[in-house]
Design a protein that fits this description.
Length: 113
């Protein structure tokens, strides 16, 4: 157990210009803070085992889940069960910052959808 922040978390880059920081990582739980610049997005995918909860800290997330688009603002979240196709993007001017909580961890459990 330890204090977690983007200053102490393991950093990685995805999509060429998006940042992620591992805040908690165990065999059963992953908590990641991510930053997505305007105009960036992830590829549509699903997780066979992991369910995820996205929680917006700043900005607006466009979250397409099973062909339905949801706009999440700061202090709003969305739960995605396993095996449900989804895509997160930032279609707004402000940088998007959010938490993604996965159980079990989603790394290695991703398939294009």
């Amino acid at each position: 157990m330890s204090l977690a922040s983007i200053q102490t978390g393991k950093h990685y880059v995805w999509g060429g210009n998006c940042d992620g920081w591992h805040l908690a990582a165990s065999p059963n739980l992953s908590v990641i803070q991510e930053r997505v610049p305007s105009g960036s997005s992830e590829a549509r995918h699903l997780h066979k085992k992991a369910e995820q909860f996205f929680y917006v800290l700043a900005g607006t997330a466009t979250l397409e889940v099973a062909d339905t688009v949801h706009m999440l603002k700061a202090n709003e979240g969305y739960h995605i069960p396993a095996c449900v196709p989804h895509t997160l993007s930032n279609q707004h001017e402000q940088t998007l910052e959010f938490l993604v909580i996965s159980t079990p961890p989603s790394h290695g459990d991703r398939e294009n959808a």
